[in-house]
Amino acid sequence: MQAQSTPRHPWWAVTAVSLATLSVVTTEMLPVGLLTPIAEALDTSTGAAGLMISLPALLAALFAPLVVISAGSVDRRSLLCGLLVLLVIANLGAAFAPTLGWMLAARVLVGLCMGGIWAIAGGLAVRLVATRSVGLATSLIFGGVAAASVLGVPLGALIGALLGWRWAFGSMALLGAAVLALHLAVMPGLPPSGTTSVRQFAQQLGNRGLQLGLLLTFLLVAGHFIAFTFVRPLLMSVSGFDARWVGLLLFGYGAAGMAGNFLAGIAAARRTRLTVSLIAAGLVLAPSLFLTIGESRLGGAMALLAWGLAYGGVSVGLMTWMMKAVPRAMEIASALYVGAFNVGIASGAWVGGQALDRLGLTANLWLTGAFAVAAGVVCLAGRRMEWTEREPDRLKRARR
């Protein structure tokens, strides 16, 4: 095994990894704000177009653990660069897709890239910077995921409104190429530092805290995407907004989401269960607002901002739960978390598409609220877990 080379520019390397997660998660979320024009251009229903979200998410869930288990002999720099090349190809394929079948073929590649990049990115901070800076570096790497989750949709909607939806995918191909060039320039060689077996995964699955964390991840993420996958028709059909307002509204959602991410990150470090419970309550409130006051433009805008504030804390809140539940096997916890998160996206988008085509948008809102209520019940079930009151040394060191 070759020794790892020392990064000449460690923080540029961290930035490159953060931009990789930003690029792949933004690509995954891009169709959410563009479903209506894509469905019209590809001559399919809005519900069927939701497969553009569920298919890559499902593949990412399958691929993330496989990367951790099977990529032990591959240099992580080479693996990341290869996945970024595939991401560029996937975005170009989507930009030029003539039919839904071609679009879904491109989205298959997105799923492979999503699972691979996210699975290996979380463990790279400790290999790129000094020990005292690992906490900050990890925050920046996962900050790419958080930013993409709340800003990727409005960004795609804005580009789509200005230039057309094909240019939204083309723009992501250009960004992916730029991130690839940055990786080639600043990322050091990253030979494997260890291996992970199927047996180790099986052992960790017996951890009750991990089990509850995975269930919470599925419930909150799936419930969110049941309705949010179709947020564009929701804003236009229920609240009565013109298409030109959707991008601006989703940027407001993204800003609220970033605020939620910051607030949840502070609170979850000390009161994880309470923080996740409040997030679940927020994801009950948001669809309730749409059902009660969402038929007006002001009410719809208020509901969307509440939605962004609540969902913005999901990623950091649940990741903190996983870190406290499995402090000594973070790579395994990260891979399983990615899997549960993306199964949630896939399931939510598929269920939402079925509900939309059969029952209409109101049913999606009711289902979103029901999933969030179930997540609140799970939080209560974990109320006696000791780690919710005692912060592990690993987290204390990371915050210093």
TrEMBL record:
Domain Major facilitator superfamily (MFS) profile: 13-387
Subcellular location: Cell membrane
Database matches in InterPro entries: MFS, MFS_dom, MFS_Efflux_Transporters, MFS_trans_sf
The organism's place on the tree of life at top rank: Bacteria
Bilayer topology: Multi-pass membrane protein
Protein name stated in the entry: Putative MFS family arabinose efflux permease
One term under GO cellular component: plasma membrane
Gene3D superfamilies: MFS general substrate transporter like domains
GO function terms (MF aspect): transmembrane transporter activity
Pfam families, sorted: MFS_1 (PF07690)
Transmembrane segments: 12-35, 47-67, 79-98, 104-128, 140-163, 169-191, 212-231, 243-264, 276-294, 300-320, 332-351, 363-382
Keywords assigned by UniProt, alphabetized: Cell membrane, Membrane, Transmembrane, Transmembrane helix
